[in-house]
Amino acid sequence: MKVRLLHTADVSPGHVRSAFSGLAPPLVPGEAVMFRGSLAACYDRSRAQYDAFSVLEAVPSPEPDWLNLLLVGADLFVPALTYVFGLSHLAGGRGVLSLARLKPPEENDLTETVLEHRLRVEVAHELGHAAGLVHCVVNDCAMHRSLWPESVDLKNPEFCASCRARLPGPG
Ligand SMILES: [Zn+2]
Ligand SMILES: [Zn+2]
Predict the structure, then answer these.
(1) Is 18 a member of any domain?
(2) Lower CB density within 10 Å: C or N end of the chain?
(3) How close is the Cα of 158 to the center of ligand 2, in Å?
(4) Residue 107 has what DSSP assignment?
């Protein structure tokens, strides 16, 4: 499955490269593209955050065998939660991931290495959902559910054997 990483202008080229370099089978890098759409209508003034469902609607549907993931710097929420790292259409081939909460302000001594690991893990997580995977009980599988950035550190950017077996393609 080829991955198209769309990104907003506030995501650094280094982070786009990191996200691509961490892709594990059956995900393969396709292309990185600047997102040209506007997310202004997705902004919620009362929460000073972006509505994740609304942002997800702005992500184009991919062609067969491709997955589209939009990387943003904007802070995302869903109504029931303070924030979300990302959101995907289950098996819909598209998702969105935010860098905002992977490096929270209170973790000001966080190294770039840790941030890049979190980015790779959550890229795999959202792409997994987009490809049809649900949450996984294996602690270090990319599809394990994470509610806090520190819990992302315990996961790998790869799919466990049982998740991997549910995905198409060689690997
Ligand atoms: Zn999830
Ligand atoms: Zn798994």
Answers:
(1) yes
(2) C
(3) 8
(4) -
Between the CA of 129 and the centroid of ligand 1 the distance, in Å, is: 7
Q: Tell me whether residue 169 is in a domain.
A: no
pLDDT tens per residue across span 66-80: 999 999 999 999 999
How many structural domains compose the chain? 1
Q: Is this structure's pTM higher than 0.85?
A: yes
For residue 117, CA distances in Å to 65, 94, 125, 128, 171 come to 26, 21, 12, 16, 21
Q: Are the C-beta atoms of 86 and 97 separated by less than 8 Å?
A: yes
Answer for the pair 22, 53: CB distance below 8 angstroms, yes or no. Answer: no
**154: domain range?**
2-164
Q: Which ligand is nearest to the CA of 95?
A: 1
Q: Are 98 and 133 in contact (CB under 8 A)?
A: no
